[in-house]
Every structure is written in C-alpha cells, then in structure tokens.
Amino acid sequence: MRVEVGLPSQLTSYSDGASRVWADGATVAEVFDDLDRQFPGLKFRVIDEQGRIRRHMRVFIGRDAARDVAAAVPPGQPVLIFGALSGG
Fold first, then answer.
1. Which residues of 64-84 are buried (b: 16+ CB within 10 A; e: fewer)?
2. CA distance 21 to 54
C-alpha cells in the first residue's frame, strides 16, 4: 500500500529537500524500510537499533500517535514524522 509521508525539516536533507514523499507499507516498520531503501540513512534518524521510535521523534498515523513500529497504517492515512521539542 502506498502512503504519503510528511518529513520534518531536519530530515529533508535525506530526501533531496522534499517535505512530502511516498512510501509502501502496511505498518510503520514497512513504511520506514521503504523510506530507507529510497533515502538511505533516514530510517536510522527515527528508528533506533532496537527497532523502536527514538525518544526525540514522534510518528503519527493520521492524527494518532504511533507508539510502536508494528502499528498498522490504514489505507488513505498519511504518516507524519516530527522532531519532539524540548527545552527548559
């Protein structure tokens, strides 16, 4: 299944400046595998060595936060990636 993926500005250097790209996958893991095939290095910025979403990144499927890479991506729902804000 083909889904639209929104990238934050800190990841557009991997996608030749594109903030919207397309990837194939029925789960978050499959979408990131396809993104990494198209844009090498992008997945590692969001998914850690243990296959978990990094603490400083947020992944949404439509309006719902994905807490796990096994989360299903329903047809027609975009995947949105955000860098979490922090500060003091």
1. eebeebebebeeebebbbbee
2. 21
The strand pairing partners of 61, in sequence order, are: 64, 79
Residues in Cβ contact with 42 at an 8 Å cutoff, skipping those fewer than 6 apart: 7, 11, 14, 15, 32, 35, 36
Spatial neighbors of 44 by CB under 8 A, at least 6 apart, are 36
Structure tokens at 2: 């083909």
* Sheet bearing 79-83, strands edge to edge: 20-24, 2-6, 79-83, 57-61, 64-66
**Nearest Cα to Cα of residue 32 among 74, 70, 88:** 70
Q: pLDDT (tens digit, 9 = 90+) per residue, 18-56?
A: 999 999 999 999 999 999 999 999 999 999 999 999 999
* 3-state DSSP assignment of residue 64: strand
